[in-house]
Design goal:
- It contains ten helices and ten strands.
- By secondary structure, the chain is an alpha/beta fold.
- Helix 1 crosses helix 6 and helix 3 crosses helix 4.
- Bound molecules: iron/sulfur cluster.
Length: 284
């Protein structure tokens, strides 16, 4: 099972996104997928390039729209494992409406956000995840807005799988992606993925000093939503591991009345060219 291709990533040396790419490739192999069983759909940003670096179906979509495309792919072929991916600006600013509603919908895809608290591709502007006071070219006096808390928002929106990891912890990140793939519903995995070129505050060392790893917290119960919310608030969101999972709620595909088990993409409608033209004409 070879999820590597021969495309050389053009991320800066040391960018956290390299680990996310490796973790997706390892997780896909570990759960027994073949390349033709996986689709990786990405948005725009440095992180959006990831779909081109994995040997699977891939689509580098448009800004903030990885999730609508990924959901379309899943609905057309529920047999595919679908991973959507992008950055914090992509998913938590322009794409936030899609993120919240995909969470509510609980469609069976895995969404991996490479969260570097800055816009890297456009050379370093404040993002929705930048802390108050964060200085960039777009906020030279320091950001006057508070940072978004995406995982608290996800929990309060009915998320059934919420996890967070760190690019430096490839083992944990790979394991969480495996769990996300296996989860029957929408899984959100936020990854602290440092931008070594433009973010000189939230560095690898900064995360190592500030993160609480749930794998080391005794007695933590990831099925307890209130405990998950409390822990996120206590740590200012600097928490890694499986934060919350609800295995009881069914996925969107399983709840839609009459949704076919056989993928739409595998059905042969046996339609003639004339009938097809007539159908298309009705939509003109
Ligand atoms: Fe990674 Fe930042 Fe370089 Fe983009 S600019 S590739 S996010 S290090």
């Amino acid at each position: 099972k070879e999820f590597r291709n021969n495309v050389k990533p053009n991320w800066c040396p040391g960018c956290g996104d390299f680990s996310v790419q490796a973790a997706i490739q390892r997780a896909a192999a570990n759960v027994g997928l073949e390349p033709e069983q996986l689709a990786v759909i990405s948005g725009i940003g440095c992180s959006g390039r990831i779909s081109g670096y994995i040997n699977a179906y891939g689509l580098h979509g448009i800004h903030g729209r990885a999730l609508p495309i990924a959901q379309g792919v899943k609905l057309a072929n529920r047999d595919l494992t679908v991973i959507a991916s992008g950055g914090d600006g992509d998913g938590f600013a322009i794409g936030m409406g899609h993120t919240i509603h995909a969470i509510r919908r609980n469609i069976n895809i895995t969404y991996i956000v490479m969260d570097n608290q800055i816009y890297g591709l456009t050379k370093g502007q404040t993002s929705p995840r930048s802390a108050e006071g964060f200085k960039t070219k777009s906020t030279p006096e320091g950001s006057i807005e508070s940072a978004l808390s995406p995982l608290e928002l996800a929990l309060s929106s009915g998320a059934t799988f919420v996890a967070q990891s760190f690019s430096s912890d490839l083992k944990q990140l790979t394991a969480l992606i495996e769990e996300g793939i296996k989860h029957e519903g929408f899984s959100l995995i936020n990854v602290f993925s440092p931008c070594v070129t433009f973010n000189k505050v939230n560095t690898y060392d900064w995360f190592k000093e500030n993160i609480t790893n749930l794998d080391t917290v005794e007695g933590y119960d990831s099925s307890n939503r209130i405990q998950a919310m409390t822990k996120l608030m206590e740590t200012g969101g600097l928490l890694t591991g499986l934060i919350y999972q609800n295995k009881e709620r069914k996925s969107y595909e399983d709840l839609v009345p009459g949704f076919r088990q056989e993928p739409l993409a595998a059905q042969n409608p046996e339609i003639t060219a004339e009938e097809f033209d007539k159908l298309v004409a009705e939509f003109k």
